Amino acid sequence: MSSNNIDSALIENRQFPPASEFTDRARIKQADFDRLHQQASDDYVGFWAEQARSMLDWQTPFNDVLDDSKAPHFKWFADGTLNVSYNCLDRHLASKADKTAIIFEGEKGDTRHITYQQLTDEVSQFANALKAKGIEKGDRVVIYMPMIPEAVVAMQACARIGAIHSVVFGGFSAESLRDRINDASAKMLITADGGNRGGKIVELKSACDKAMAGGCPSIEHVIVCQRTQHDIPMQEGRDTWWHDAIKGQSSECAPVWVESEHPLFLLYTSGSTGKPKGIQHASGGYLLGAVMTNLWVFDLQDNDIFWCTADVGWITGHTYVAYGPLAAGGTLLMYEGAPTVPDAGRFWRICETHRVSIFYTAPTAIRALMKLGDDLPNNYDLSSIRLLGTVGEPINPEAWMWYHKVIGREHCPIVDTWWQTETGANMIAPLPGVIATKPGSCTIPLPGIAADVVDENGNSITEANKGGYLVITKPFPSMLRTIWGDDQRYVETYWPKFDGKYYLAGDSARRDADGYFWIMGRIDDVLNVSGHRLGTMEVESALVAHERVAEAAVVGRPDDIKGEAIFAYVVLRGTRPPDGIDEELTKELRNWVGEQIGPIAKPDNIRYADNLPKTRSGKIMRRLLRNIACGEDITSDTSTLENEDILLQLQGKS
Ligand code: PRX
Question: Which domains does the chain have, with CATH numbers?
Answer without folding.
Answer: 526-650 (3.30.300.30)
